[in-house]
Amino acid sequence: MALDFVLPPIHDNEDGSWGPSSSTLAAPFKDIPYAPFSKSDKLTRIADWHDPALEGAASSTARGGRQTTTANRRPGREAYGASEVNAFGYVHDEDEKSFSLVDSTRPTRGRTSALRGRPARGGLAPGPRGAAGRAGAARPAAPARGGARYSTSSRGGRGGYGYDKPTRTRDWSVTPAQDWELLEEIEFNRLNKLSLGVDAPEDLEAHGTLKGYDRAVFDRVNTRAEKPLEITERARYNITTSEDPVIAELAEKKKATIFATDSILSVLMCAPRSVNSWDMVLERRGDQLFFDKRDGGAFDFVTVNENAADPPADSDDALNGAASLSLEATYINQNFRSQIIQDKSKAYTPHPNPFYSPEETEPLAPVLYRYRKFDISVGEEEELDLIVRTEVDAFLGKKDTPITVKALNEYDSRAQGAGKALDWRKNLDTQKGAIVANEMKNNSAKLARWALQSYLAGAEQMKMGYISRVNPRDNQRHVIVGIQSYKPVDFARQMNVSLANGWGIVRTIADLVLKQPEGKYVLVKDPNNPTIRLYAVPEDAFEPVEEEEELIIHEQDE
Predict the structure, then answer these.
(1) Each residue of 238-263: pLDDT tens digit?
(2) Is residue 511 part of a domain?
(3) DSSP 554
(4) Which of 51, 178, 348, 463 has the fewest beta carbons closer than 10 A?
């Protein structure tokens, strides 16, 4: 005989939430809240009767007032449903201090970073082509000190010491005016995700003079055989893109859509590494785009320990202030690049220097300007070319082996902003790897720019000089204590510099401006945040006020 199947009752939760419905619970369980539970949770100790506070009080008596805490807790993950623990917490009005819950959460250490920039700095003496269009090799002078401001945070100092440490608030390289229109604000984490593969460039033209590197003399320099840094008064130019006559001719022939120099392009490609504020002017003329710099701006100077945890600051000690060190580093690089040249070597001059005029009496520094075209288009159907003016400082062996020359400078390993640097004269020959690693940390942005400039120029080697002060308290006399050679691409890879990411940044900024109407735009690095901002500015945004006043006075006289 078959038995009848009776369907058991189904308790449906009408409100749609998980857990039993309040209408289906038995009377004894209605006032108990429900907490989620997972079968994978492991049950350990229910309660911990060990009270560190009481033991600390007992220990303080035994050790003469010094309080110690010896609570041993095994770290673990937070249990599923731990947010509901307060619903079941045992509370007793009279004896609540004798009971404590076991804390099984793993402590996490927060990581904080302070973005630092650079206060306004003094400039080199203006040349005939602009404030910094032509940079001579004069000795450094004390530049005008910037207005770095300090603010005190209400939170504890770095490292958990509990004191308020002043935080530097940096100035803008150029202050945005009220009539500037903010078009785009891009954070560095967005820039780090960009990528674009670019093929080998095409060499278009070469201008200037190139001479050989004196390897017989300078490859033997070390801490035991120092060589004084010589002061060579030679003309060297850093003309902006739109004022370059060669680029103007190439633009007129429609050889490319975008034009820039290696110094400007390298800063943009390394933008996420920068801490100091910088700015560049982007001008769209028709369907062409020009990346320009301002005379006397950040592109005319070399930074020092920009990425250090505690970088140099402009203070009463102007000798090792950020502005003085930057001017000193610029002066060192100019003289070092001229000194390593072998004057008796045969010069290679494909075309004359486009910036040197016959009226100038100062001798010309040997440098070769190579104009190279990069294809930064995305697909085969698209055509978007970029022409870059690059610089090569010398050739090695034969004229078809171009190299670039750069110089790191040591000022005082005990001064603020030195970044825990080792003494070069004592450790460079034996611990060069540690010194290079420290320089990569403290000058990440600068070294990355140098590597990319060498890559853009097609240099096969980059000669890095180590220049130190004769006396830490004297920034006028220096000695060369070592020289090291690197392949630019390998050096960039060692610093984790991505060429594809750099080209992705360049293409993104170019697309943003090419979508805008004709006019002038400014790209600015925020001095206190990891952000770059794109502004639309008036055509006369950076014209000198003095010239306008003279014109008005002249018209009134007429």
Answers:
(1) 999 999 999 999 999 999 999 999 99
(2) yes
(3) H
(4) 178
